[in-house]
Amino acid sequence: MACEAWHAKLDLYVDGELGPAEARALAVHLRECAACAADALERVQMKRATAVAGKRYEPSVALRAKIAKQIAPRPRSAFSRAWTIIAIPALLVLIASVAVNSYVRRERTQRQRVYSELADLHVAALASATPVDVISTDRHTVKPWFQGRIPFTFNLPELQGTDFTLVGGRVTYLAQTPGAHLIYQLRKHEISVFIFQERESEVVASAPMNVLSFNVENWSQNGLHYFVLGDASTGDIEALSRLLKNAG
Question: Fewer Cβ atoms within 10 Å of its own Cβ: the N or the C terminal residue of the chain?
């Protein structure tokens, strides 16, 4: 019965539309139920495959040029030219306004896409039977494991005296760029820490703290961009972020 109740909410979970309390409860269920975890992972993979397929059918440069030629303005009368000159200031203001709004929407969409992809990686890792490739609570074991596997190095904090535990790490990809995916545990919560080179992720620097069903913190430091994402409280996410900032 528990599986049937959660099964109807898997799509909402992978799309980040569940409330924080239900998302945490479902995350606990996924760790205990292999069938539901496999179903959630399949849905995440289908979602990402659909997103990739949707990018294959963008109009070609030749098609855009053909359309632009067809709608190009034709020669006008003297009266039309005079009216155009009068209307130019207002038109420029309108164009500027449209351009700014378009840029803001595009940036917002791109930020949302990045965070959605990170949330998918987080959910997929928790639903997997092997969420990490290197299992260790020792930062001195996990950090060297990444050498040669990603094109940068990073520092990890000392966790002694804190409530956080390092579970391990794995290599992950964002926009086909390799990075580090670390998983920390805090009580019954799993928190993902993603680290990428800054040039690949600077577009999301101004993203909000709460994204989808998860709390998120992100910042740039020493040429790297960090994302801390999980269903833990905002205070816990900020506490782990401070540890990482001080280590870096």
Answer: N
CB 214 within 8 A of CB 234: no
* pLDDT tens for each residue of 206-247: 444 445 578 899 999 999 999 999 989 999 999 999 999 998
Token representation of residue 169: 């790490």
E-only strand ranges, 72-208 = 134-135, 164-174, 177-186, 189-197
In a domain, 87, yes or no: no
Instruction: List strand residue ranges (DSSP E) for 45-176, in order.
Output: 134-135, 164-174
The answer to whether the predicted template modeling score (pTM) of the entire model surpasses 0.70 is no
Which among 191, 176, 48 has a CA at the least distance from the CA of 113? Answer: 48
In a domain, 137, yes or no: yes
Q: Is 70 among the domain residues?
A: no
Q: Which domain holds residue 122?
A: 2-53+107-247
Number of domains present in the structure of the chain: 1
61 lies in a domain? Answer: no
Structure tokens at 34: 């292999």
Which residues of the chain register pLDDT less than 50? Answer: 91-92, 94, 96, 98-104, 200-203, 205-210
Give the domain CATH number at 116.
Answer: 3.30.200.100
Separation of alpha carbons 53 and 56, rounded Å:
5
Q: Of 192, 226, 229, which is closest to residue 209 (Cα–Cα)?
A: 229
Dump pLDDT digits (tens) for 6-36: 677 777 777 777 777 777 777 777 777 777 7
